[in-house]
Sequence to fold (226 residues):
Amino acid sequence: EPEVTQTPSHQVTQMGQEVILRCVPISNHLYFYWYRQILGQKVEFLVSFYNNEISEKSEIFDDQFSVERPDGSNFTLKIRSTKLEDSAMYFCASSGLAGFPLEQFFGPGTRLTVL
Amino acid sequence: QKEVEQNSGPLSVPEGAIASLNCTYSDRGSQSFFWYRQYSGKSPELIMSIYSNGDKEDGRFTAQLNKASQYVSLLIRDSQPSDSATYLCAVSSGNTGKLIFGQGTTLQVKP
Fold:
């Protein structure tokens, strides 16, 4: 069964460093998302991506964040200068086979720890 | 601010019983409604989607939607200890697919 994959599973970084989180969405899906979940809190939307551009972003997704689909399979989230409060689980999700976002399937997540 | 509200629980039911999980949402324009299951330390796993008023059944799970009352529920029949998890209600409006999640309800099924 097709699934979303994410690497690395755990990333530890120093405050101020750049990190890149990687995702391989389900093949043929058209919509891609990043969410994050701070320990004990709700899953929060960060950004949606369709047709090679951002379709919506949240207030959390400020200038420190960027997304890219560098090739036909990978979808990345970059945090330019990490802060302590960026420590969270980051989930990639994908959806949509026919041009309309429906059920979203989540990857296993990357646990980001900023020291 | 669009909100999705759930009782955080824990909701404790004996094995074999029916578990009833509830969710309310604030945006009347919401179009798509989902239930995800999340085990501790894992990612959300989609278990049900519902788009129109009424009931939708899939195995032991039944989702119910009442748009007039802005209310979504999930019934789990014949609850098993393996159903013990946090159940997340998620709501989508607009055409980007953005999901707004509730806090989740923790379900404990006791053998």
The interface with chain A takes residues 32, 34, 36, 42-46, 49, 88, 90, 92, 94-104 of chain B (CB under 8 Å). The CA atoms of residues 25 and 45 of chain B lie 20 Å apart.
